[in-house]
Sequence to fold (392 residues):
Amino acid sequence: MGSTTLPQPNPVFGGLGTTIFTVMSALALEHKAVNLGQGFPDEDGPLSIREAAARALIDGPNQYAPMPGMPVLRQALARHAKRHYDLDLDWEREICVTSGATEAIADCLMALLGPGDEAILIDPAYDSYRPIVEAVGAKTVGVKLDEKAWGLPLDAIAAAVTSRTKLVMINSPHNPSGRVFSRGELEGLAEILRTRNLLLVCDEVYEHLTFDGVAHIPLITLPGMRERTVRIGSAGKIFSITGWKVGWITGPAALIGTIMKAHQFVTFTTSPALQIGVAHGLDHEQDWYLALPKELQKRRDILIGGLQAAGFRTMPCEGTYFVTADFAPLGINEGDVAFAKRLTAAQGVTSIPLSVFYGADAPQHYIRFAFCKAQATVEEALRRLKAQRIGS
Ligand code: PMP
Ligand code: GLN
Fold:
């Protein structure tokens, strides 16, 4: 008889906790807190998109969509890239539709990295990146955003490149910081990628959510970047339909072809009705998605004003759904996870602690608040923060 102990699972997942978004949303429910933690809007996006998808559910098709995505959506995505970024994409070879950006991230990292490779992540990094890199046997090298104003640390990125580095993964507009990296920062990064001949995975799910006229510049549009860059997008963020999980990857045919080999065995394909709905939205609801940041910007300003009045130091927010706040000025003497949990239980306001997005040496005094909620929800959270003293 062999051992009675079952074989151990992959230590990357065996050793992982539950994602912070699930943890904090459950805690918010338990304490009836206002949930400014997990980033999902209170209001669903355009009715015409939901109607187009609902019609397709009834009328069909209801069988497997083509593995790379439905032509109607890939063609709409090619038009979208041309319209906003003057980017020419071959819709048949340079676009892959996925079940959310989460799948797209996994497909890209699984397809591009192998055992022994190194991937540079910019910390704080969205929480799905690190486990996927590690699960394929590659190593993550975290480089921290400058804490003064969440600036991109170009010198540290250049210094982190080794002979094993294969790719850099970047997210702009950046979750959780709220930064939209400037042309200067992106040109500096592009220079490193060109001179060190590296690949780039760009998570651009918040591409249309920028404020104060700040422009989002896809790195793929910079000189020498077209052949080495893949971009990830999500209908969830463009159209406030985060539950749909329709995403995509665009980039050069050589890279997309390999990434599709991962996609074909991760999900193979995505609901045809939802793809039809998103295609309709890209072609017909441009006014809606271009107006959304103006609405969100108002709520951002209300949130920032209220947080400052409550004694937080707020960090720059140029895009996304999120503002990061430093609670050190409140004289609080506990870590960010403990503080975020206490704020939920004692004040009835839920946020997300930032330290979970770091590989090492995480700062312990930042939390993230989402403002993609109804104005009344944001105001209620601020009323609760003001009503009681926050100190520990
Ligand atoms: N990347 C970032 C930076 C995100 O904030 C999110 C969260 N929505 C995702 C990827 C995942 O997007 P999706 O819901 O389309 O899987
Ligand atoms: N992207 C969302 C956020 O940052 C959450 C996504 C999720 O719950 N997995 O809040």
